[in-house]
Design goal:
The protein is of the alpha+beta class. It has 17 helices and five strands. Helix 6 runs antiparallel to helix 11. The chain starts with 13 loop residues before the first helix and ends in a 6-residue tail after the last strand.
């Protein structure tokens, strides 16, 4: 009796349905194991009809639970693709009908006819199992995976040789058995080999592997092992339904039902139909060892036949060995090609990474150079300011102090006229020093930038630049809100540096500054009609110590903005700046 079925779970009382899903599938196995044990401990011979009926119902209830809980699991967990589960449910329904037919004929009717209607049902459920497993494979794999398909074929062929030698040929060659009976006996191991091929493709292929997957594959392993043991016992006349061997086989099939039901009931059954993003499954050492073992099964079959003193279709087995060897060689060549392709890709990526690393190192060197230059410039600026303050305002204010002391002495001597002259001179000098200090302060940071915002500060800057250079300046501003002081300072300094470059190098007649605010950013465009230059030479300009443009870009990037420079000889220069807008109250 052969069997493969689908996953299911019997609907329990409402309190079971309210339990956590991890408890439901465990409780299902526990309850099912109790029913299976009750079936196994009840002896079949010489029992009243009611007890025999009860025994058949116990077995059928475990088989039926797989159907019930497969349907329950699909409705509860709602996998994205239900087609595999529908095929498996159909297979288990057919198998349940086969179980009930077999045990009714054997226990209740007392018929040992072979083959019977039960055998037709048993064989009929195999195609649905194979279809269900292959639909799982298709749902889990993205694209084709010829390597996994070849691996599954090698595994199925290796085990198929053992089935051919020890199960199929002995059944076909059995003397004194009707042809139909021999064909049916041989059909069971053939179907098992086909199921093994589909299961092997599922196991070696890509896809998520969680608890439900392992429960499902374990159920297939138990099924195939039990079917094989049953076929071998039948072929060699060792099977008796009420003997210990018969009970062990029944225990195997009952275990198969419970594992299938548990796999459908577990919440991770949803992942069994989820597609893997990889196009190929990973080749591990365990998989390679399993493939090697499958290849060795064919010559092992020849050795076992010789030990038994039998000489079957050695030529056929030799041909199969050659096919297996060719398949393994082809598979290994494919793996070698994949390794070579991966190595080439790694070398290419390594070259790209080296190139990128070189660019990053150069950029870091430029940034470090610029930082050093900025620090030296800042220190030089502090020194210059200190010198200007010392040689200018401080010296003159000291002189004013002496004049005021002289005016005080003159006043004490009673010479009011001269004291007034000295005070007038000191007052005029003090106004000049205040104006000079105010100009110095404006150079460092214009007060209007803090008091009235960026647009007015730019207006003052452009007016001053136009008076000093004679270059016409135009400001177009759609700026209507205050920004964070740091952002306003960045934009103001960009305009200052751009104007300084225009005055020194551009030979321009007109400068335009456009300022526009959006919901989340500020756009600024500074353009001149000067001589322009080759924008590709900016890096060389930095190497030669000209840091103005690089300093602008650095300021903007430090403010999380973007900086773009366009220029060409004879076409002027344009600087585009975008800075994230962080509005503050006016």
């Amino acid at each position: 009796m052969a069997d493969v079925a689908t996953v299911g779970r019997r609907s329990g009382p409402p309190r079971h349905q309210r339990q956590a899903p991890s408890t439901l599938w465990r409780n299902y196995i526990a309850v099912g194991a109790v029913l299976a044990l009750a079936y196994l401990v009840i002896p079949a011979p010489h029992l009243p009809l009611q007890v025999l009926v009860f025994k058949v119902l116990l077995y059928g209830s475990v088989s039926a639970s797989a159907v019930v809980f497969m349907v329950f699991g699909v409705r509860r967990h709602r996998p994205a693709n239900t087609a595999p589960w529908r095929a498996l449910i159909a297979a288990q329904v057919i198998y349940l009908a086969a179980d009930l037919t077999f045990y009714t004929l054997h226990f209740l009717v007392g018929s040992d006819a072979y083959p019977s209607a039960a055998d037709a049902l048993y064989l009929g459920h195999y195609p649905f199992v194979i279809i269900g497993v292959l639909l799982l494979v298709r749902s889990r794999t993205r694209g084709s995976d010829f390597g996994s398909l070849l691996d599954a074929a090698i595994i199925a062929t290796g085990f198929g040789v053992l089935s051919l030698v020890f199960l199929i040929e002995p059944n076909v060659d059995t003397e004194g058995m009707p042809l139909l009976a021999r064909l049916v006996s041989a059909a069971y191991p053939v179907m098992d080999v086909l199921v093994l091929a589909a299961a092997a493709r599922l196991v070696v292929g890509a896809g998520p592997r969680q608890t439900a997957f392992y429960l499902f594959t374990a159920s297939l392993v138990v099924l195939l092992a039990t079917d094989t043991a049953y076929a071998y016992a039948q072929t060699n006349g060792l099977y008796q339904i009420n003997s210990l061997s018969g009970k062990l086989l029944d225990a195997g099939w009952l275990t198969f039902y419970l594992l299938l039901g548990a796999s459908a009931l577990h919440p991770s059954m949803r992942t069994m139909v989820e597609r893997d993003l990889r196009t190929r499954s990973r080749i591990g050492s365990g998989r390679l060892l399993f493939l090697a073992g499958a290849v060795l099964l064919a010559p092992m079959a020849v050795v076992l036949e010789n030990l038994r003193g039998e000489h079957g279709d050695t030529a056929l087995i030799a041909v199969i060995c050659g096919i297996l060897f060719a398949g393994v060689v082809y598979r290994m060549s494919g793996l070698v090609r994949e390794v070579e392709s991966s190595s080439a890709q790694l070398r290419e990526r390594s070259g790209m990474l080296q190139s990128t690393l070189g660019e990053l190192e150069k950029a870091e060197a430029d940034r470090t150079h610029l930082l050093d230059k900025t620090m030296r410039g800042a220190e030089q600026e502090r020194t210059r300011l200190a010198a200007e303050l010392h040689d200018g305002p401080i010296q003159r204010l000291t002189a004013l102090g002496y004049q005021l002391e002289q005016a005080a002495l003159t006043l004490r001597r009673g010479d009011e006229q001269r004291a007034k002259l000295l005070l007038g001179t000191a007052q005029r000098g003090l106004r000049g020093e205040v104006d000079e200090l105010r100009g110095l302060m404006t150079t460092l940071r214009p007060p209007v930038l803090d008091e009235r915002g960026l647009a007015l500060a730019l207006t003052d800057e452009l007016d001053t630049f136009e008076r000093d250079t004679g270059i016409v300046c135009t400001l177009q501003s759609h700026h209507d809100a205050r920004l964070e002081p740091e952002v306003e300072t960045v934009l103001y300094r960009v305009v200052q540096e751009a104007l300084a470059n225009v005055a020194k190098h551009a030979n321009a007649h007109h400068v335009w500054v456009y300022l526009r605010t959006e919901d989340d950013q500020v756009d600024m465009h500074v353009r001149d009609d000067g001589d322009g230059f080759d924008a590709g030479r900016v890096g060389g300009m930095v190497d030669n110590g000209h840091f103005g443009l690089a300093g602008m870009r650095h300021r903007v990037e430090m403010a999380a903005g973007s900086y773009h420079l366009l220029s060409a000889p004879g076409r002027g220069t344009s600087i585009f700046v975008q800075v994230p807008r962080r509005r503050v109250s006016a």
